[in-house]
Sequence to fold (898 residues):
Amino acid sequence: MLKRAQALFLSLLSLVVSLPLAGSAAAESAARQLNMPQGVTEVSQAAYDIHMIMMWICTVIGVGVFGFMFYVMYAHRKSRGAVAENFHENLTVELLWTIVPTIILIVMAVPATTALMKVYDTQNPDIDIKVTGYQWKWQYEYIGEDVKFMSELSTPLDEVYGRAPKGEHYLREVTQPLVIPVGKKVRFLITGNDVIHSWWVPDFGVKRDAVPGLFTSAWARTDKPGIYVGECTELCGMGHAFMPVVVEVKEEADYNEWLAGKKAEAAEYAQTIGKQWSAEELMVRGEEVYDRSCSGCHQPDGNGIPGVFPALKGSPIALGPPEGHIGVLIHGVPGSSMQSFADQLSEVDIAAVVHYERNAWGNDVGDVVQPVDVLNYKQSQ
Amino acid sequence: MAHGPAKGIGRWLFTTNHKDIGTLYLWFSFAMFLLGGFFAMVIRAELFQPGMQLIKPEFFNQMTTMHGLVMVFGAIMPAFVGLANWMIPLMIGAPDMALPRMNNLSFWILPFAFAILTSTLFMEGGGPNFGWTFYAPLSTTYAPESVNYFIFAIHIMGASSIMGSINIIATVMNMRAPGMTYMKMPLFVWTWVITAFLLVAVMPVLAGAVTMMLMDINFGTSFFNAAGGGDPVLFQHVFWFFGHPEVYIIILPAFGVVSQIIPTFSRKPLFGYSSMVYATAAIAFLSFIVWAHHMFTVGMPIAGELYFMYATMLIAVPTGVKVFNWITTMYKGSLTFETPMLFSIAFVILFTFGGFTGLMLSVAAADTQYHDTYFVVAHFHYVMVAGAVFSGTAAIYYWLPKWCGRMYNETMGQVQFWVAFIGFNIAFMPQHFLGLAGMPRRYADYGLQFADWNMVSSIGAFIYGGAQLMLLYNVIVTIRSGAPTSEAKTWEGAEGLEWTVATPAPYHTFSTAPEVK
Fold:
């Protein structure tokens, strides 16, 4: 019985010892990764280094302590005729095993402190990006560039619920990734809109809580272009597992081109607000928006979840005057999980989704809500 | 001998007998353990594969929340209060607890608290879904209606814990047998006294936190609402000022149990008794000044982060002292490996392993990566399950013969141990890898790269769950048809007053105080 315990323990130990080897092989693909990623920034490297130092110290102490323990369990068993001695204290030994660990800890504290200084070194950034956590998506705003967009999960619900085969990037893909250039110090100013979220990119060693009413900051600078995937790590409601972080690091020229494209998009969009949309166009766009931003709570069939999220099908607001309906989207419902979408959705999207909700699942108001109505509503507030 | 127990259900409803109340606590906590375990099985079944198969994400969140709450407040804490009720009077030579009627009350409000808490699952809008740490504003502005019932239940549990603790403190301070000086008390009694002081100190803090929530939700205050001038981070400070001592509340009595069992099966006195007492006190003190290490990613100033990191690392010192003492107790003993000893040794190994990961977590820079991932889940299950639950199981096998006058089946006990030990490690060892590879905790669904280890972990969890049914079976079979034993001293190497009374322990013991030399 004891031998089995020993064998099992040794196999566990060897697993732990083999961690670093497994980790280095899996730098690119996260598949079957066992260890912390080394990542691509100074901070992630520092976190990895101190992690490895700690793990090795613990492993060495563990081998020593447990090795001695297993020796005792083998040598001093009654079945081998061991007779118990009666000693029960020894001041020297007791002092020693208080003082030695204290010294080891002080030694550990030195690299631990240096590593932490790196995490906090957020001064003098080249680019500032504001990151806002929403239930359940991220908004990225390039400060001073007039570029702002939402980044949401793009994995279809059918894949989640097993109605379609899961793609390669299941839950690791978004509508628009955050894009940053190589070689620039990027500072992330992180906050939350509703509940607390946490913005994590393992390969950057960046994890900071997105707390409503508070800004936290973190930074990254990398020379390796690529796509880096992270997650929300603070429980934020039912969509917690469904708001990944995707960051694309581009060469500087590509980044500038991308940024210029974004600005042009914004300018182009400004013109569509004034355009008259047809009911069909609004329905198509509205359904897209609804599936992405509303169906999580109000459900794809508009029935909501009784007691938690109200039904939109047959709801007095959806069937009432359009101003009231637009108002709910612009202001949210204070004290409930219905948040304001004024900042999350464009006027076109709000108009489309309002139109859709008024004319889907048997709701048949029949009126047409135009983007300009939303703009007018906003301006009248 | 005055009289035996009353007949019928009245015996249990109105009892003021410490043994009856201890039994009630133990059965209640086991029932909660199975309930919380059932929630865990639902979680692991859903996580068996990527994608949502069995339940919806909002129900998944209710399961993780209820699993945590029921296990911490319903299973582990009452289990150790039950052990305290049974064993402390027997260990210090007292006829009963100091405040027997309050003892009855502190138990009997618990079933109501958990009935209220569990009933929320059936309410419109569902039960608590904000995690057992219930961070605001997810637990206030964004909470389901049932949060008010949750708050009420927490208040009742807190009242129960405070009463139980006052009782233990009063008993130990006033009712020790002549000659039983403080430094002669069994270590289980010592760890419980210190735990009781921790409980009295921090339960009101928890009550304060939930009361502030109640005000925010119903009376328009803004303690935790940034829009009204409050601060969501304040909630975390208040919660963890309770929450960190809480984890020591859970583990200290477990230390006590193991410190009773290892000497018995080593046939040798506990090594370093007084340093054990001081280490326990040191851990208790440190537990008050390290709370914000749960909040390393919340954006504290670096000075605060450094302080909490250093203070947290310090805990390794007294904890290390304890581990060294246990091992040195075994050194040059005469060891046998009955079921209680097997669980205790597994406790020492796995708890120490959890301590190592705890030390790694204390390093704030690395915690940036570990925080809120499965690495943390693995860490605290190593200290809570392999710590508190293994120790509680060891205690049951160790004292069961004394309680009911029947011996459990040693083979069955050892089989249960190995199933539990192997199942536990299969369930939780892979969670370290999941966390390091980037899987956050409280995720209802995950990317495909995490599929393999999640499946392994789920299989281990099912095995471990099965082991608990074996424990239940073993206990019931022992009580009904175990081999009768009347030896006062069940175990050859056992020392202490509890082994001087008859077996099974009579309804009233130490009506005249024993003399301790």
Observations:
- Chain A has three domains: 2-119, 127-157+170-268, 275-380.
- Residues 1-11, 16-31 of chain A have pLDDT under 50 and may be disordered.
